[in-house]
Amino acid sequence: MAILIDSDTRVLVQGMTGRAGTFYTDLAMRYGTECVAGVRPGKGGSTHVGLPVFNTVAEARSDTGANASLIMVPPHRAADAMIEAIEAGIGVIVCVTERVPVMDMLRVKAALDGSESVLVGPNSQGVLSPGLCKIGVMATRDAAPGAVGIVSRSASLTSEVVAQTSALGLGQSTTVGIGGDPVHGLGFAQTLELFRTDDDTRAVVMIGEIGGTEEEEAAAYLSKTDYGKPVIALVVGRHAPAERRMGHAGTLAMMGARSAAQKAQGLADAGAIITEDADAVAPAVQKALRGG
């Protein structure tokens, strides 16, 4: 079992005819993802990589039954693409586009209010349920079906933990990249709740970092929830200089904001198992599942 996506997920790709869209659509189909359509205004009626192309998301959904979207359009058009998918009733929307303007994302957040869509991203590596479905730009070589859910703000650290958990024979139920931008869709707390109710996810890895309040919100959620599964957390950025952007737009430690150590302590107080570095994550998961 998995969260958000599974073998029944039918994916359309907004921006499929572009270079990146072409490349990642092809990879997804080779992986086994059921990609059913592309969307590119002005190219409706054509085909690309063997799939029909539509002018709008609504047309694509109506004709193909698509229930998920991968957005691969430039930053200045990404918000409109997300809003179009929301208005068309797409259930899961994954946006991998980086550098979407914050003011644009406020429009997207307003469109999400009251909708049934779940937005992952922007600036996300995507969502992967190993062996079932891939929506995003993540590598799949080291992924394996299993019982560990992973939710992360860092694409590179996700890949590292995926490789480690697979090497120990644990595998992954689903990996979710919530993205590193300050304004985004699905967050840590919401994803933790999805994993909590997934019977096949036996443990959850949460990879956080400095900046923003995602880790604090996750700690608040865990502190008031009988979670029932081990949560292993890694918060990176312990040695990052204060008040300086470190890679992600959301990784900005402002004056008065909580440090990585403080975020980790808050999660520990809420019941999470804290690891100091990426190499310790998979062994901590293994130990927790063995009851150690």
TrEMBL record:
Key words, A-Z: Ligase, Nucleotide-binding, Tricarboxylic acid cycle
InterPro entries: Cit_synth/succinyl-CoA_lig_AS, CoA-bd, CoA_lig_alpha, NAD(P)-bd_dom_sf, SUCC_ACL_C, Succinyl-CoA_synth-like
GO CC terms of this entry: succinate-CoA ligase complex (ADP-forming)
Domain spans labelled CoA-binding: 4-100
Active-site feature positions: H248 (tele-phosphohistidine intermediate)
GO BP annotations, alphabetical order: tricarboxylic acid cycle
EC category: ligase
SUPFAM superfamilies listed in its UniProt record: NAD(P)-binding Rossmann-fold domains, Succinyl-CoA synthetase domains
Keyword Nucleotide-binding: yes
EC id: 6.2.1.5
Annotated GO MF terms: nucleotide binding; succinate-CoA ligase (ADP-forming) activity; succinate-CoA ligase (GDP-forming) activity
Signal peptide positions on this chain: none
Key word Ligase present: yes
Family membership noted in the UniProt record: Belongs to the succinate/malate CoA ligase alpha subunit family.
Protein's UniProt name: Succinate--CoA ligase subunit alpha
Record organism: Rhabdonatronobacter sediminivivens
Lineage start: Bacteria, Pseudomonadati, Pseudomonadota, Alphaproteobacteria, Rhodobacterales
Gene name per UniProt: sucD
